[in-house]
Amino acid sequence: MKRIVPLLMVVALVAGACSRKSGGGTKLRTDADSAAYVLGMNVGMNLLRMDSTLNIEVVCRGIRDAVADNTQFTMAEAQAFYLRYVNYLLPEKARAYEEQFLADIAKSNRAYARTTSGVTYTVDEIGDQNQQSIASSDRDTVALRWVIRTADGKEVDSSYKRGDTIRTTLGALRPGVRESVKLIGEGGRIDAWLPAKEAYGASGDAKLGIGPNATLYYEIELVEVKKYRF
To answer: 114, 160, 185, 227: which could join 127 in a potential S-S bond, CB 3.0 to 4.6 Å?
Structure first.
């Protein structure tokens, strides 16, 4: 995801780098036009982060109408609609797309199955079923190795590359990972598509580069299971 430089900093950089006094020249007619273009860039990049499917022509019409003081919504109406769009319509749109995406995976590859939560998986190796966590055993300790990718194939985490093994209780894992691990035994391997709600949800994880409402692909190796002893 592209980093958005704070707006005032960008304007200052452009003004300094492109000033006629500096000898750099400008690609646009005036410094004011350059600043206006930078404003447009900043708006466009933020719009892409929010919803890349927005109609850019309608966005531009909204800007023109606002400048001309001739908008089709009052400010109160605009705020009410936007809150509904962000909090309900946009997540619903993302969930509908995700549901179709996961259904298509299961349909196109019969090796994949789906759980009731939407986790879409295929077991590469079942492992030792005598060393397997069951539904009621979230206090079991598990050792895992994994690779996590986004839907477009970008790798965001790999315990293999770090050379480590994740050791934690089963209950501390993301819901979709926990559900996936319960499908295999010690030594088993599973590949699973996790719906956003079963992974990092609406908040995502900026540190890992996982965006809001992201569908994720996990390759999981269950190295060890230690049963919880009462």
So the answer is: 185
